[in-house]
Amino acid sequence: MELEKRLSKAKTSLVLEHPFIGNIALNMPFYVSEDVPTAATNGKWVKFNPEFCESLTDDELKFLVAHECMHPMLEHNFRRGERESTRWNDAGDYVINKLLDDEKIGRMPSVGLLNDDIWTAGGGTTNGIYKVLPPTNDDDGSGQGTPRLDECVDAEGSPAEQEQQAAEWKIRVAQAAQAAKMMGKMSAGLALFVGEVLQAKVDWREVLHRFVERCKDDTRSYTRPNRRFLSQGMYLPSVTGEAMGDIVIAVDCSGSIGQAEIDQFAGEVKGIKEDSNPKNIHVVYFDSEVSHYEKFSRDDELHIEPHGGGGTAFSPVFNYLNEHNIEPVACVFLTDLYCSDFGNEPPFPVLWVTIDKDSTDAPFGEVVVMND
């Protein structure tokens, strides 16, 4: 077929001109398929629609080939989670297209997404751009009729299998980068990109939401129908209805946490309240002792404001919960972790969100560094 020849030519061109991406493309199975409207990848294969690709120039097809290789490099196929599929796809496209355009790799087709203002507003990351894009209310990936360059399809397999695929992709990226460096064809921009991929910072927001998600009981309830499907006339049970128990949010008010960190943290906790619908959220403010306490039910509007300002001790928080018979399914601390008084490990999981990248040690629980 003519398209197969053109795809082979695009691969060859990438190997010669941009060997980093070319080496990745060589090891990706390509298929010509009318099952996709433009192009699509799930991290294991790439499919190209013949009618769409026929409308592209050779440079645009080269761009599209490179674009499809970038989605699994950036783990877009493995870490969408509960995010809207089209919005996540678009966020990833803004990141990829900016890089390919800066590197002058082919030419972006007219349906591609490229906007410096959106890229900057989102901090140049897929997670950040996703947050600044408006909701699409489109969970089936249809794009509501809007023409798109491609579809970023979720990887197959269990979460553990997807993590394994993501790890294998990191190896591919490292090998391709090494080959390109040996050829003397690794630009500074791509070298920076590779470094970020191989040493990617953990997004604390993702860790926080996954932590809470793991604490859900998967009992499904029709008392709160799944809102995502109501617009389609489908009355389906929600896993977040009556299934989420109480959670505790503990805020370090010793003076080390600034208002900017408080605001970031509060925004994510409000997102948890909306998404996971816990029965109650107990907010405990502490320094060397518990200085303030508030309880928010499902119908209450959540707000987090600092109270106190002395030293730091974590054990009073656990003592307070025990004394007041508060039995949460999880507890999340916002702190700098500069304290040796942790107390005894509680019978529930604990996540420490620390604002200091140099302070990440805790005798129990999971630690994640708050980053921008």
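(the above was protein one; protein two follows)
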Amino acid sequence: MNFNNYNHLSIYLIIFLVFMAVAEIALKAITLWRSAQNKQKGWFIAIFILNSAGIVPIIYLLLNKNKKTK
């Protein structure tokens, strides 16, 4: 059994997980900012509380992409 292959796999997995975590934080921050600016408390609370791997923020951004912030 060659353990070098597993070592490379774990490095790529760690890089992938770090990238996904940073993307989730950025997406959540943008979505929370927009929902706060649009005074949408329900969306803000849902996005803030639920950990959905980016699904709820993406749904919000898609549903509210044409709404202008004041």
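Reviewer note on protein two: DSSP finds three helices and no strands in the chain.
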